[in-house]
């Protein structure tokens, strides 16, 4: 029986998963700001039940408020995302800043990617809804690529979103129409697509579909594989085509070439993906030249039988840390299984550096990825490793005019004047220490996606004269005003005797920015090399005038250890009043 026919038999799965960003309360007490989302959910469920043959007691949809107290929260979300038929994200500016919403989107979209890989058929089962309208330029790639006409739900819906319609009684009819049309779209897409259930996602390691808050990043996928025209003697042609890009190592289970599946997975993580074969690429250069992009090589070890391809692979060594290698192989391919050990040894001889000084996921990818499911899980980790190395080695181009005017540095916890510098210091030693770190505030939680510090020592450093790595937070824009983004830069200056002054001892850091007042800071996380000549770039948009504090947390990228926290403040004023007959320039 075909998979779709099986699904239509007594299919009582939820029709939709409502994904939304939780709105924090304004002040203490007051109504629950998410009560309106719950009303929308209830209205959708009533319509879906009326439009389908779901039996009594079956769930028409799901939202996280249905999770009983004491039940495993992440496990329950993973189960529903692995089985629901349609994903309904509630668009709002807050939604695309939410890491959890990005993880939910990623978990569902992987099912659509798997469906397309196995059937070669499109699977568009994401039905977006406008909670608060979002300008198109603020949409991340996965949302921007959705083919969806919101005007089908009414003009007022497009301009005000469901939140505006549900809050104002005058728009009650427009709200009812929009919700009814949304429910119709959910049922129609669910019945037409029939995406099979998948495996629950582990939220501890799941990436966000919106990336790391840094906007779209480049990623290149290069396929290293033979073609039908140059196969090694006796090799089964079932896995190949006229181009290296036609290579499908998991045939016959999958129907699409792996390069294009990799492109789908990369784009689902907000990468700007390009694809080519090794045969089309120019010769690889040296680490002395900055890279133009991070890269993932998809290597068929049968390609090593060709001397020219083998020579080109050998040129990619420790000189190219921004190039990661992933080796798919199919244990059901009896021909490959018979020579597995020999092919593995030949790859290790050709590219000996691929297993050295690399994260565990990268080493696992080189050893061999024996299934499509494992490939889909490993590729995001391998791509992220390549992207992080690219950020360490890529050329940095400062903005036009940088360095012409001296900008004021912001005061921090150790500064006592407007020109004071927040001091992030680590004593000498073989590794980073938190001995000079500022302890977290009582009752506070570490920033999202950052491991808590292993230890905090409030005592001063044993060596007062130890070399330091000083954190500088600089305000780039003069005269900050409410509602207008102002730019901040964060950098570390290591003294000559500090271990990080040596190029071979510089760790990659993540800088996490958390506003401590009514303001937004973007991005939430930025990667930074303390030995780099550049700086991490942030912007702050204040919602009200006054002094706004921002906490910057420096995290060791590879270990997740919190090394230091510093704070800075920005004094923000009201916008200048607009005179009658004049506009703001």
Structure overview:
- It is a single chain.
- With about 575 residues, the protein is an alpha/beta fold.
- About 40% of the residues are buried.
- It has helices at about 5-10, 35-50, 75-80, 100-120, 140-145, 155-165, 170-195, 260-270, 305-315, 335-340, 340-350, 360-365, 370-395; strands spanning about 15-20, 60, 85-90, 130, 215-225, 270-275, 295-300, 325, 470-475, 485-495, 510-515, 520, 525-530, 535-540, 545-555, 560-570.
- It has a 4-stranded parallel β-sheet with strand order 2-1-3-4, with helices on both faces.
Q: Helical residue percent?
A: 25-40%
Instruction: Catalogue the unreliable spans.
Output: 1-9, 397-465, 578-585
- Going by helix content, strand content and strand pairing, the class is alpha/beta
Distance between the termini: 67 Å
Strand content: 15-25%
Largest sheet, in brief, is: 4 strands, parallel
- The largest beta-sheet arranges its strands as 2-1-3-4
Shape: flat
Radius of gyration: 27 Å
Please state the average pLDDT score: 78
Count of alpha/pi helices: 13
Total number of beta strands:
16
H and E string = HEHEHEHEHHHEHEEHEHHHHEEEEEEEE
